[in-house]
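Objective 1b of the project was to move from sequence-level analysis to a structural picture of ligand recognition. The entry below was assembled by the postdoctoral researcher (A.K.) and checked by the PI before modelling. It contains the amino acid sequence of the target and the SMILES of the bound compound, NAP.
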Amino acid sequence: MSKVQVIFGGARVNPGRGFDNAGALQEIFPTLGFYGVHQIDTARVYGQSERILGKAKAPSRFLIDTTMPGGLQPGSLARVREQLETSLSEMQTVKVNTMLCGHVNPNITWMGANRVHKQHQVNVCYIHAPDRGFPVENALWSLNQCRKADLFSRINGYVMPEVYEGNYNVFARQQEEELIPRLRRLGISFYAYSPISGSFLAKSVSQILGGKSGRFVPGSDYWNMYVNHTNVAALKDWGDIAAEDLYSSAELAYRWTLFNSALKGEHGDRMIIGSHGVPQLVQTLQWLQRGPLDSVTCEKIDRLWDTIKNEVQAPLDVAHG
Ligand SMILES: NC(=O)c1ccc[n+]([C@@H]2O[C@H](COP(=O)([O-])OP(=O)(O)OC[C@H]3O[C@@H](n4cnc5c(N)ncnc54)[C@H](OP(=O)(O)O)[C@@H]3O)[C@@H](O)[C@H]2O)c1
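Corresponding predicted holo structure:
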């Protein structure tokens, strides 16, 4: 059984967000390498993230997956090639080097340390959100222009997409019902973001209801997705499970998603982690060395999901409310 690999999430690679500049980012590269993290996730809409990744020469050491805005900027799919070229120039203030040159065809990309990363390409190019007003044929045509120009290696467009990135954690498991089985049938890997629900699962009820906790400010997307009567009651039970079984609640959530959830290494699935700084990141990476949770704890987690899943407001993702 192959392991689910971990991806470092680049949303907080931004001034004042935890990884402020290229120097701060470069400091964590050896740590990421030590813990087997070889891939970074970013997006056009993440402020200076792509630019800082470029300045830190991240593309010479990591596979970079980036995301075009799509429905976050309605109509922008018509300019997706221009947007992707902007991303590439932001990230390639220095030349992108081959990650590890082997005997393989340079057009082929490989995962992990053995992966060959072609110059000037990104690894995965995502569309951030559906643009329901934009004709799908035109979107596919635009994406195919990028593909033909060889601007990314894992593909969207006229051939089958290879990766779906989605929200997935202990409180957001609807993906197991319909989406993941469908992805399996189509041979598409699932990359799970917000594995501790952007920190909801690391907080106490009073921290969340205090409304000053990072992303959980009243009215924010994450507030609207997670903060309701059922989830707040379940968050209290979640804290109790962690305390009974002597885990920190963040550790419990990360380890469940990596080891005990529907993610499977053999399908190429990944877990994308976030962090507000180096000590927190190191702590998370150390927890992930500890392996799967025991079956008694997993049963409690399943029972907790049973209390959430049939609620109308069970969390799915930001695009679907
Ligand atoms: N495609 C999309 O639409 C999309 C959407 C969301 C995310 N993403 C990607 O996925 C990445 C990860 O998402 P995420 O940030 O939501 O993931 P996450 O891992 O669920 O949440 C990260 C947050 O949890 C808290 N945390 C992290 N480590 C902790 C620890 N050891 N102990 C206690 N708390 C801890 C921190 O919040 P505090 O600062 O509050 O401590 C941190 O900012 C993003 O950077 C981005 O690349 C993509």
